[in-house]
Design goal:
The strands form two sheets. The protein has a six-stranded mixed sheet with strand order 8-1-2-11-10-9, with no helix packed on it. A five-stranded mixed sheet has the order 3-6-7-5-4. A hairpin with a 5-residue loop joins strand 10 and strand 11 (150-153). The chain contains six helices and eleven strands. The chain has 197 residues and is an alpha+beta fold. 28% of the residues are buried.
């Protein structure tokens, strides 16, 4: 029977779960990371996007994934690199999307400038910057990469908080209602949807 205390196990590295893999990507001049598998489900090319009914600076558009509509958020806008989301098809051609799980369920796609690598950090390799040791998903850590550069770990709850989820859901509903309206030929339905008597 092993008589190692939890403190001794932590010091020796025993009993610590292996660090989950991290998707490393670039936005502007900086590199960032999100947990691969837990948060980032897939890296994919940008499909044809549907424009939102109301142009929001950080929303590039929507696409259908199975039976669900997925919002595409330009992480460059959210991180202050760009003022408006990239929407032109030619500009989207070589930008990847990170299909991510949202906290509480559902998916969202993050538009980034480049997907660089999926790495497995070494145990104890991260340096805490602004988060407590128990912070979920490693947010607030600097992750040193093999070439000596640094990736800053992000947290999905900071990218898409509860208020943002409600705004996205509302925008999606309005976009669906408008698409349904355009699909109809009944002028009375158009008046009702516009709020006319």
């Amino acid at each position: 029977m092993d008589q190692t205390s939890p403190q001794q196990a932590a010091l020796s590295g025993q009993g610590r779960p292996e660090a989950p893999p991290v998707m490393v990507f670039q936005v502007g001049e900086r590199q960032y990371g999100l947990p691969a598998g837990l948060v980032v489900r897939e890296c994919m090319p940008v499909p044809a996007l549907r424009a939102p009914m109301v142009m929001v600076p950080h929303v590039a558009g929507w696409f259908r994934l199975g039976g669900a509509m997925v919002a595409v958020l330009d992480l460059g806008v959210l991180l202050g690199v760009r003022a408006q989301a990239v929407r032109a098809p030619l500009e989207l051609l070589y930008r990847p999307l990170l299909l991510c799980n949202q906290p509480g369920g559902g998916r969202v796609a993050l538009l980034v400038d480049a997907a660089l690598d999926v790495i497995r950090p070494q145990k104890g390799g991260g340096v805490m910057v602004d988060a407590g040791a128990g912070e979920a998903e490693g947010a607030g850590q600097e992750l040193e990469l093999g070439d000596g550069s640094i990736a800053f770990m992000l947290r999905m709850t900071d990218i898409v908080d509860d208020d943002e989820r409600m705004r996205l859901d509302s925008l999606l509903e309005r976009t669906r209602a408008r698409a349904a309206l355009w699909a109809q030929t009944d002028p009375d339905a158009t008046k009702a949807a516009d709020g006319a008597p």
